[in-house]
Amino acid sequence: MKNAKSADGWPAPTGLRAIPKSIWALGFVSLFMDTSSELIHSLLPVFLVSVLGASALSVGLIEGAAEATAAITKVFSGTLSDYLGKRKLLAVIGYGLAAVSKPLFPLAGSVAWIFTARFIDRIGKGIRGAPRDALIGDIAPSHLRGACYGLRQSLDTVGAFAGPLLAVAFMVLLANDIQAVFWIAVIPAFISVAILIFAVKEPETARSVDEAHSPIRVQDLRQIGAAYWWLVIIGAVLAVARFSEAFLVLRAENVGLAIALVPMVFVVMNVVYAVSAYPAGTLSDRMDRRIILAIGFVVLIAADAVLALATGIWLVMAGTVLWGLHMGLTQGLLAAMVVDTTPPKIRGTAFGIFNLVTGVALLGGNLVAGLLWDHYGPSSTFFAGAGITAVALVGLVSLQGSGHSLRTKDEE
After folding, report:
1. What are the distances in angstroms from CA 342 to CA 86, 347, 354, 401?
2. pTM for the predicted model, two decimal places
3. Is residue 15 part of a domain?
4. What is the pLDDT at residue 346?
5. Residue 49 sits in a domain of what CATH number?
6. pLDDT in tens, 318-354
7. DSSP structure string for 147-188
8. Comparing C-alpha atoms, which of 188, 182, 189 is closest to residue 47?
9. How far apart are CA 308 and CA 325, in angstroms?
10. Is 181 exposed, middle or buried (0-12, 13-18, 19+ CB in 10 A)?
11. Which domain holds residue 281?
């Protein structure tokens, strides 16, 4: 990858200081919202079962319906952001809905109320996801694209492990009053929305309403080349292999980890994820992103192998570390590669399609993982994950060998 030049011919600045302030702001938006969400979600299954008397099946149905709702909503919100040329507006609506849903959790008196709160929260996630990711692509300098996505992913993941840690701390301080902890979670959610409104500046690069004729047109989709569709397929196969982290928790319990320490699985995974995402993104700006992505696939295969063969908690934790590393090496890069392979005016649509396909694939992967676990044991689930990841790796190598460009024409 060639070194970028500034307008006066000098090498373009790099590093954390060179990342635009709005990217940092979007990272902190994600951090605060994820902290709020994980404060609630780390305790929600216990609250549903022990306080509201829900069954495990009800918990599964709530989570499955919530994630499916988010995946379906993303494709429409991404397309709408292209049509309106107002990505920040949709992001504010999405984060705002998530914030408004948070007080419903401590007020809930029934499973139906929790279902409603989760539904509103996931609608918010679906609305904000694709426009936010496309907005980062609009703001990020092309030579810092991987770094920008990696930074946002790192800050988002800081919230993912800060939430469970705060939940444990507040449960101790508040004598296991789950609803009081849920009320505390409301605060960072609204801080997140405030940062988005006042600190993020949207560039004048998105499509205006005058230019748009319909939300999505066939000629727009024809601008998306084969490299993008290959990326969607590879991302979908990876999503099937990268089933829910809940199976890491089940594996830890399976080898004897005390229930009280189960949240530490998420903490360990997300710490590694947060630490690795930005360096991986920065490195991908200096070399072919597909090489870093391929390394991430190999790490996931190694994680699956360790988790399949684990006989004690230390091996499970080693597998969890590798799992977090693979997340850092792949998730931000996949987002950067979506931007690399699509024209600026339809990036929202591209992210929406990518998120929809991978979201549905993830649900399918969870179903397969659960069936294998129930019928053939934990090892079969992780061995299957390793095999499916190997298929994705072959597809990625095929993409690299095909000579497809991973840059849109305006950047080449």
Report:
1. 18, 6, 12, 20
2. 0.71
3. no
4. 82
5. 1.20.1250.20
6. 999 999 999 999 988 898 898 888 888 788 888 888 8
7. HHHHHHHHHHHHHHHHHHHHHHHHHHHTTT-HHHHHHHHHHH
8. 182
9. 17
10. buried
11. 20-402
Q: Which residue has the tokens 């499509």?
A: 207
Residues of the chain with pLDDT under 50: 1-2, 6-8, 10, 206-215, 403-412
CA 338, distance to chain mean position in Å, is: 14
Give how many domains the chain has, as a whole number: 1
β-strand partners of 11: 5
In order, the DSSP letters of 89-123 are HHHHHHHHHHHHHTTHHHH--SHHHHHHHHHHHHH
On whether residue 253 sits in a domain, the answer given is yes
Average pLDDT in the chain = 82
Name the CA radius of gyration of the chain, rounded. 21
pLDDT of residue 210: 45
Which pLDDT tens digit goes with each residue over 187-217? Answer: 999 999 999 999 999 887 544 444 444 445 5
Return the residue matching tokens 């609250």.
47
Residue type, 336: A
Q: How far apart are CA 288 and CA 192, in angstroms?
A: 34
Q: What totals of helices (H) and strands (E) does the chain contain, helices first?
A: 16, 0
Take residue 83 and report the two structure tokens written for it.
Answer: 């049509």
Whether 40 maps to a domain, the answer reads yes
Question: 139 — alpha (psi -120 to 50), left (phi > 0) or beta?
Answer: alpha
DSSP per-residue string spanning 302-352? HHHHHHHH--SHHHHHHHHHHHHHHHHHHHHHHHHHHHHTS-GGGHHHHHH
What letter represents residue 353's amino acid? I
Could you give the C-alpha distances from 403 to 207, 291, 342, in angstroms and in order? 30, 14, 16
At residue 14, φ and ψ (nearest 5 deg) are -130, 180
What's the confidence (pLDDT) of residue 10? 45
Structure tokens at 325: 């590393």
**75-158-46 Cα angle (round to 5):** 80
Please tell me the predicted confidence (pLDDT) of residue 293.
92
The reply to whether 228 falls in a domain is yes
